[in-house]
From TrEMBL, chain B:
This is ABC transporter ATP-binding protein. Residues 3-242 form the ABC transporter domain. It comes from Parafrankia soli. The keyword Transport applies. PANTHER family: SPERMIDINE/PUTRESCINE IMPORT ATP-BINDING PROTEIN POTA, SPERMIDINE_PUTRESCINE IMPORT ATP-BINDING PROTEIN POTA. One of its GO terms (molecular function) is ABC-type ferric iron transporter activity. SUPFAM superfamilies: MOP-like, P-loop containing nucleoside triphosphate hydrolases.
Length: 315, 385
């Protein structure tokens, strides 16, 4: 709550923002206000006396950190070329980039769920040697610089790569610098988010529910799809949203492995980067779009997190 | 189902950590066996083995003539093909499904019943248990008693070949427990299958079961009709549940010499008796009715049959007189339990009003009178398994 206040003050102290801006971001702001208000009313009624002022060695850095995190976003809103925005966003290249990003991120998310949930299950429930090691390996893409990921993908799937040369020789399939390469690069970086999210939920889930399903006649597969999976659905959804957001913002692995070709591999982050050199206004406009998408994702995710916690409590 | 052997016949051998379970049980259809035992005796493991959730290490499980598990022949039927209706201690209702979908789950996955008919049958079960109006609720919205009944309906809906109840009433508050106990009691005779219920509550065993098996340390130490088990305990655990004093000894010529007996169950012999001081060895001798069976025996004594006096009473021919200091005094409603460190130690029960006269505190020396007819003497190797 203490963190929320300076944020609102900063937001409030930006009068030069035209009405259109508030219109764009408004759907999010009142909600937040509501929530904070509700919380505050509750705490005021229940424990008015015990409310303590944060000690300054904590309050000052906290306020600075808040400003540091939010000021760039505010700058983005202030400096956005609002008059030119409709033109910039209706530019075909922008539309292509946005559409490509949404499309690839969505396909990536589907792939992450299809392959990530079984992997999470194996990590959480499997009984094979090296499970701990595998779990550690799966998290590597989380900490690996995405550029390195892109280079590694080239080494595997590039035309001279370990697998890529076979694909090229035998099937005439070339992956690098295609839209498929974008999806592969995004999946590489996004998959761990889903795996970790689902694996955590599976590990925490009470396995005796599967016992109960078994005594009712369910095979292990049936028990998984009818009982376990629905019970960890909030975690799958949260992982999917995280993966989608991560895929949408992917830059390093994509530009290394898929290149930067308009319509086929030039996603939103790539075109923002490109536009910064030629048309900064367009870059700001594109960034604004990504910011809005991020906020939408955040809202979606908070709902799922809340759900996930509730489900766990019930279980 | 074959004609010749119906019901459940099992010898369950499971090693799990420190637990070594080796228990034989037989339950006919329409009969309920209560497995009574302290925590850690292996009760839940026994049920899990019957359901196939824990494979046997040795022994055999046969239901209606079909072998479900037999390590010797390598036969093992997995839980999903065992037709065991299992009511878990904490129910384990699927939190993402409504009550009716929880109950319909079994028929749908076991018999591939379609959604519509399965839900209709589930609604019937819920209605039968008085839950029709809660059918659409998720388990989180149900009270403990309602969840218990949904769990029961879920276990019964697929038409199981046996019903396994794990502490069916332990998670309920006292009032609900009475209510659900009455419902289970009404339900059990209508089921055509053998029922195994594990519990640590003697009231469940006495009110719901046709037969009681006492499980201690992984072994059945006593089995019989509920009334018999509770009046003629064979172990300190059952004696404590029944509130009886229990002494092992050797009977001869109208006298039982207390102490470990050669032929008796080691669990009985080594312990200090149900009414004795915890851990103290049993000494002394008791005069018993002349028709008592000779040899290794157990002597049970109801605390209320013990007379407590501040002075030595005049001797009488058929009365045992014991003496010792009071160890503890504990109120039980309008009765008071007095533990006396006599030889043997005795738990006596006197009216609260009499305590007001005697004014017993720890250390007060007292004399106890026990008529020999009050001592129930029975062979210690009888039905013990």
């Amino acid at each position: 709550m203490t963190l929320g206040r300076p944020a609102r003050q900063v937001a409030g102290s930006t009068p030069p923002v035209p009405a259109a801006v508030t219109g764009g971001v408004e759907p999010e702001l009142p909600r937040r206000g509501d929530g904070a208000g509700r919380g505050r009313r509750g705490s005021r009624g229940a424990r008015r006396e015990v409310r303590v002022r944060a000690p300054w060695p904590l309050a000052v850095p906290a306020a600075l950190a808040t400003v540091f995190l939010l000021l760039p976003l505010v700058a983005l809103i202030i400096r956005a070329p609002w008059e030119a925005l409709p033109d910039l966003l209706s530019d075909p290249s922008t539309r292509h980039a946005l559409w490509l990003s949404v499309r690839t991120a969505t396909v990536t998310t589907v792939l992450c769920v299809l392959f990530g949930v079984p992997l999470a299950w194996a990590l959480a429930r499997g009984s094979f040697p090296g499970r701990g090691l595998l779990r550690a390996l799966v998290t590597i893409p989380l900490v690996l610089p995405p550029v390195v990921g892109g280079v590694s993908l080239l080494l595997v799937l590039g035309r001279r790569g370990l697998v890529g040369n076979r694909l090229d020789d035998w099937f005439g399939v070339t992956i690098p610098f295609t839209t498929n390469a974008v999806i592969i690069a995004q999946t590489f970086v996004a998959l761990p988010f889903l795996v970790l999210s689902v694996e955590g939920a599976l590990s925490a889930a009470d396995r005796r529910f599967e016992d109960a399903a078994a005594t009712l006649g369910a095979s292990r597969a049936t028990a998984f799809f009818r009982v376990t999976l629905p019970m960890v659905a909030p975690a799958v959804a949260a992982g999917a949203v995280l993966s989608w957001a991560r895929a949408l913002g992917e830059f390093g692995a994509t530009i290394t492995f898929a290149g930067n070709f308009p319509k086929t591999t030039q996603t939103m982050p790539l075109s923002v980067y490109l536009a910064m050199e030629t048309d900064p206004d367009a870059a700001v406009a594109l960034s604004l779009v990504l910011l809005v998408v991020s906020i939408v994702v955040l809202v979606a995710l908070r709902g799922h997190w809340w759900d996930a916690r509730r489900t766990q409590r019930l279980a | 189902m074959t004609e010749k052997s119906t019901g459940l016949d099992a010898r369950i051998g499971v090693d799990l950590g420190t637990l070594r379970l080796d228990a034989a049980l037989t339950v006919a259809p329409r009969r309920t066996l209560a497995v009574l035992g302290p925590n850690g005796a292996g009760k839940t493991t026994l049920l899990r083995a019957l359901a196939g959730l824990v494979p046997l290490r040795h022994g055999q499980i046969t239901l209606d003539g079909t072998v479900l598990d037999e390590p010797a022949s390598g036969r093992y039927v997995p839980p999903e093909r065992r037709d065991a209706g299992y009511v878990f201690q904490d129910y384990l209702l699927f939190p993402h499904l409504s009550a009716v979908d929880n109950v319909a789950f079994g028929p749908r996955v076991r018999h591939r019943t379609r959604r519509g008919p399965a839900r209709a049958a589930a609604l019937e079960w819920l209605a039968r248990l008085g839950l029709a109006e809660f059918a659409h609720l998720r388990p989180a919205a149900l009270s403990g008693g309602q969840a218990q009944r949904v769990a029961l309906a879920r276990a019964l809906a697929p038409g199981p070949g046996m019903l396994l109840l794990d502490e069916p009433l332990s998670a309920l508050d006292a009032g609900t427990r009475l209510e659900v106990r009455a419902e289970i009691r009404a339900l059990l005779p209508t089921l055509d299958v053998p029922v195994v219920m594990v519990t640590h509550d003697p009231v469940d065993a006495l009110t719901l079961a046709d037969e009681v098996a006492v499980l201690e340390g992984g072994r059945v130490v006593q089995r019989g009709e509920p009334a018999e088990v509770i009046t003629r305990p064979r172990t300190p655990y059952v004696a404590r549940l029944a509130g009886l004093n229990l002494y092992p000894g050797t009977a001869a010529n109208g006298t039982v010499t207390l102490g470990p007996t050669a032929g008796g169950d080691p669990r009985t012999a080594g312990a200090g008796g149900g009414g004795g001081l915890p851990g103290a060895p049993v000494h002394g001798a008791l005069r018993v009715a002349p028709n008592a069976p000779p040899g290794a025996v157990l002597v049970a004594l109801r605390p209320a049959e013990v007379g407590v006096h501040l002075r030595e009473p005049p001797p009488e021919t058929r009365v045992n007189v014991l003496t010792g200091p009071v160890v503890s005094v504990e109120a039980l409603g309008d009765q008071v339990r007095v533990l006396v460190a006599s030889t043997p130690a005795v738990r006596a029960e006197i009216p609260a009003a009499r305590l007001g006269l005697l004014r017993l505190v720890r250390g007060t020396p007292v004399w106890l009178t026990v008529h020999e007819d009050a001592l129930d003497v029975y062979p210690s190797d009888g039905a013990t398994m």
